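Researcher: We plan to redesign the surface later, but first we want a full-length starting point. Tokens attached.
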């Protein structure tokens, strides 16, 4: 489950089952911590990863539209849709707001890699800042002019940082047994990491960055060349297979 909190509000998505499975909906639900009031903002649709803005005035969600298209949508707290950004063949999996709520970043699954894009909400433009990442990145955070995400580095799981101003890419923290979710507080990154005694919480200064190469995806031409080197399994065309009449009772009870 993905929960998002800002101010006195919590937001999450929950399934609403109908009589027909293909008509099930994933709703956007909020909970007011002061009034102890739960409210369903959007009842119909398929929404995932709903995340509150820093000012708690809008909600960004990943949606799968009725036209079978993926998009990032914005909703106001009254349930009305403020904007929809189609992402084409990219499948968004995580969104994150900037500090001033003017930018929205998201991780997407591409055909053979992952990518990170930034939406300029004022100018309604999408800029793919990390187009081809050959890594299973997740847990996206947006703080200042930097994006933070988890991935793999030299056999360890790590928290990466990417600067939108000078395009530097580096490792903030890493662990051999796995890092979990995190949050930026001041000039520190608070995150969970796994040990022999279970999950622990660690703190790391975000200005202490170890620069590293970005794990870019292999070019399609290289992928094609490597594929052609592999030998394919070809089944013989002379095989004869016995055809049997299907019977529910005979196949349910195997007498031997």
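Model: Full-length starting sequence:
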């Amino acid at each position: 489950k993905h929960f998002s909190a800002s101010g006195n509000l919590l937001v999450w998505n929950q399934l609403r089952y109908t009589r027909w499975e293909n008509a099930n909906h994933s709703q956007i639900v909020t909970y007011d911590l002061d009034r102890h009031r739960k409210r369903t903002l959007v009842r119909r649709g398929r929404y995932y990863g709903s995340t509150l803005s820093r000012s708690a005035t809008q909600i960004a969600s990943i949606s799968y539209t009725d036209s079978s298209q993926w998009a990032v949508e914005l909703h106001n707290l009254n349930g009305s849709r403020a904007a929809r950004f189609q992402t084409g063949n990219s499948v968004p999996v995580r969104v994150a707001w900037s500090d001033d709520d003017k930018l929205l970043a998201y991780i997407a699954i591409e055909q053979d890699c992952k990518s990170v894009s930034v939406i300029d909400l004022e100018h309604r433009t999408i800029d793919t800042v990390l187009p081809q990442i050959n890594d299973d990145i997740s847990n996206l955070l947006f703080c200042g002019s930097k994006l933070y995400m988890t991935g793999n580095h030299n056999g360890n799981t790590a928290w990466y940082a990417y600067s939108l101003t000078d395009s530097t890419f580096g490792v903030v923290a890493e662990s051999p047994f796995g890092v979990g979710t995190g949050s930026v507080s001041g000039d520190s990154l608070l995150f969970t990491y796994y040990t022999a005694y279970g999950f622990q919480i660690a703190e790391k200064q975000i200005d202490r960055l170890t620069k590293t190469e970005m794990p870019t995806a292999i070019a399609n031409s290289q992928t094609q060349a490597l594929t052609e080197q592999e030998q394919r399994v070809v089944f013989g065309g002379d095989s004869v297979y016995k055809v049997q009449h299907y019977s529910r009772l005979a196949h349910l009870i195997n007498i031997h």
